[in-house]
Every structure is written in C-alpha cells, then in structure tokens.
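> forwarded from #structure-qc
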C-alpha cells in the first residue's frame, strides 16, 4: 500500500545545527525570520528539518563544533538534499534581552557572538526561542533542490510521504530538559 503524500511545512536551518538537533546536542533554536520573511512565526508545530548551507557561519559556533561544520561543508550536496529528521515545537518564548538568551548556552552549539549578532538584526523585534523535540524520520528523504527552496526564508513546503520515527531524546530526559529551560527563562 502506497502512503499518500503530505504537504509538510519545512524549516530551513543550518546543516550543522540540524545535525546537533539529531544528536541531542541542541534543543533550542533562535529565530527572527529570514531576510525574505516579514518576521518569524511558527508555521506548524510539526515540521521537517531542511539542512541548509545558506548563511551558516563557522565563526558563530563554539570551537568544539567547528570541525563538524568543516566536514559538513566539504560534503555539501550538489543537486539533492537529504532530510533525516523532523521536529515538534514543545514550547516557544519571545525574549528581548541578550543576557537571558546567553543563559541558554548549554542547550545549543552557538558561541556567544551568535546571540549578539542575531539580536542586532531587526533589533526592534524579540528573539523567538523554540524548544524542539527532534525525531528521526523512519526513512531518509532525498529531494531535488529546487529554486523555490533557495533564498533567506524560514519556511518552505515539501510534499512527501515522510513518516516520523523515534524521538532523539527519550521522554524522561526531554521532560527534565524542558523543566530546566523553563527555569532558565522564568
């Protein structure tokens, strides 16, 4: 039996960050929207993660993640991209103070200058902080890179028969993580 295609909301994110999400080394995302967006909003509470190389900045990663960035960049795909994960938004916050965002450092792979840089862009807007529950797909999804997927935008649409598999972080550990992050942002 063939599963029907679903139109998925798909969030574009740095390839190195998608890998960190898939490995459970990152659980929060910081978003303000892309240049082509009017701002950032959560288009869907469940979405595919589209690993992108647009605007990735090695200088914005903590030192221990720079070699991984270099490796991913060296293996950058040509005409296809492989999507291997999806995420569900477990919680979201709007945060307008850098010092609060800096307290989240153990939940992501960025260095301190990333937060400062992102807060300067569109400075009148707060940062959207998303707590994600990341899931591996049951099967990787190889898709052709299309012109409509390019450009500095947060969300794209992909029709696929993708199925969400197991979570990267088990329930008990994820619930503890959520409580910690809520405490940091309280």
């Amino acid at each position: 039996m063939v599963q029907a295609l679903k139109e998925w909301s798909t969030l574009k994110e740095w390839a190195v960050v998608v890998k960190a999400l898939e490995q459970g080394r990152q659980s929060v995302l910081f978003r303000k929207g892309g240049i082509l967006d009017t701002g950032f909003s959560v288009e869907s509470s469940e979405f595919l993660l589209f690993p992108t190389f647009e605007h990735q900045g090695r200088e914005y990663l903590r030192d221990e993640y720079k070699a991984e960035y270099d490796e991913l960049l060296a293996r950058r795909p040509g005409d296809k991209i492989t999507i291997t994960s999806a995420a569900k938004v477990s919680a979201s916050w709007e945060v307008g103070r850098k010092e609060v965002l800096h307290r989240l450092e153990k939940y992501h792979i960025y260095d301190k200058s990333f937060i400062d840089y992102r807060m300067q862009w569109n400075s009148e807007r707060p940062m959207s902080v998303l707590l994600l529950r990341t899931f591996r797909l049951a099967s990787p999804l190889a898709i052709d890179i299309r012109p409509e997927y390019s450009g500095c935008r947060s969300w794209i649409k992909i029709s696929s028969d993708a199925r969400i598999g197991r979570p990267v972080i088990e329930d008990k550990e994820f619930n503890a993580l959520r409580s910690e992050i809520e405490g940091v942002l309280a």
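QC bot note: The domain at 6-185 is CATH 2.30.130.30 (Archaeosine Trna-guanine Transglycosylase; Chain: A, domain 4). The longest strand covers residues 127-144.
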